[in-house]
């Protein structure tokens, strides 16, 4: 029995040394990969990770590396809970990266939207995330969907209309007349809107002929907005010589999307709805 135990000990030590040697090789390769990533050496990364096609990579800490043997000469190296790479041993004994998560650096805003709408998940690989984010059709579909479900940032209501003869726009006596239209503007968003960011545009008719029997032309005008807190309303009065104030509208000087935090309306099911819409 003692001879059997003595015979087994060298074999067990040999196995242990073999596993330790393999683990060290995996860790060394992982540390080299992390060093390339931290210096953004994309060409060097491609040598270890041939399928990687990333524009940029994230920084990787090697303070707490752990290795899991997946079998079939394949290993997962966890740098931290959100970053890992998978290595596979080739026929020549060298290691190559065959998958990763949290290594590629994607546009933050685009990735956030993809995550919040169910397009990607923290568990899927970098290569899969890149493939999904390249679907520009989805993001166009999502923008159209948001616009169709979103109110206009400013609600405009037309009110009292008055026409005063014998005065001009400054109230001075003249042969013409002035039409005034009282409008109410309401901020429908959860963000303040500055008056400089929008204006009320309109058209009107005017007379130039001697008898004043019919309008001779149309003109355009605009009136700058007023500051509005979320939910606040204010009155704006439009004025025009003669009559016929029409085509009253709110014209924004900045992108309308800037007034909304679309993430508040995401349900996490948008990507599934997009896929269903393509069937």
Which features does this protein show?
10 strands; Immunoglobulin-like; 279 residues; alpha+beta
What does this structure look like?
β2 (74-80) and β3 form a beta hairpin. This protein has helices at residues 2-38, 42-48, 108-116, 126-133, 136-149, 270-277; strands at residues 66-71, 74-80, 83-89, 95-101, 154-167, 173-187, 198-206, 217-224, 233-241, 243-252. It has six helices and ten strands; from the N terminus they run ααββββαααββββββα. Mean pLDDT is 84; it is low at 1-18. It folds into three domains: 18-105; 107-147, no CATH class; 154-254, Immunoglobulin-like (Sandwich). The strands form three sheets. It has a four-stranded antiparallel sheet, covered by helices on one side. It is rod-shaped, with a radius of gyration of 34 Å. With 279 residues, the protein is of the alpha+beta class. The termini are far apart.
Number of domains: 3
Radius of gyration: 34 Å
Shape: rod-shaped
> From the helix content, strand content and strand pairing, which structural class follows?
alpha+beta
Number of helices: 6
Largest sheet strand order: 1-2-3-4
Sheet-strand content, in percent, reads 25-35%
Total strands: the figure is 10
Amount of helix:
25-40%
Specify the biggest β-sheet. Answer: 4 strands, antiparallel
Task: Give the integer mean of the pLDDT values.
Answer: 84
Spans of at least 5 consecutive residues with low confidence: 1-18
Topology-level CATH name of the largest domain: Immunoglobulin-like
Element-level helix/strand string: HHEEEEHHHEEEEEEH
Return the CATH architecture of the largest domain.
Sandwich
Kindly provide the name of the CATH class of the largest domain. Answer: Mainly Beta
Separation of termini? 70 Å
